[in-house]
Design goal:
This protein is mainly alpha-helical. The chain has helices at 32-38, 51-59, 71-96, 103-107, 109-120, 145-152, 156-170, 178-190; strands at 44-48, 97-101. Strands 1-2 form a two-stranded parallel sheet.
Amino acid sequence: ESRADMPMQIQRSGSDPKRRWIDGTPLNTFYLWALSGMFPQARFIHNLRRPDEVATSLESFHRVGAEPQVLDEGLETWISHTENAWYGERAFGRERAYRLDFHRIGDEPEALFQEVCAFLGEEYSPDCLIPLRKKLNSSEVDDRRESNLQQLQENPAFRSAQAVYDIVAAQPASVPEPFALEVLRQRFLDY
């Protein structure tokens, strides 16, 4: 099999070790403080996605073997993860946290992955785009996105989530802010 046929591996041989650990679990936003202490050289990527898209996806999570959430609950989940990720950006600064605009994955993947590789200190290769050929972990909701967005327009939970999105999108972090690390520590302890 060629590398293009096997873009991801669950297990690697000892002669092909990994240098990076990558985990895209949004729950890790609650552990940013602890992860940053355990891995002081770690870099973090915040994948910022619109709240209505995430809530719509969470509504159909049963399709990927997870517990679905009603739209309001999905919005609250989105707010928690996004606020935590934003505090992570602010705690670690631009040197250790990268803001990824989700729509760039579809709109300009090569430019995006070149930036991500530069952030990680890795050489870019077109092979980085191979995993994008197949959608993984999709709750298959493209047909409901627009109708859910219309439904959510008057929803107070959506207005709160959209306000968080607007603030976060407008304020990318640049230099580390010590108070943000303390917020992450407290949120970790509270979780």
